Known about the structure:
Helix content is 17%, strand content 25%. The chain contains two helices and six strands.
Amino acid sequence: MSAKDSKKPSGPVETKDLKLWVDRDLCIGAATCIAVAPKAYELDAESKAIILDSVDSETKETLIESAKACPVAAIIIEDKKGNRIFPK
């Protein structure tokens, strides 16, 4: 698998009317995001989540659930207008 954006592997990326990214300073490599949305994320060499080019095959609901599953709220999701969906 490869990152959706090789220059910014942890995002932000746009998919399903959402903008999402991983805050690399917060990410602890727990991999709960991968358990919930395996087509959206994987851990890089630094054990930080990156967003995969296959993220588009996950549902909007699954992406939101993956952010909620993160124990440190390192996945940030906004709608197209820039309104924060998670974390609030």
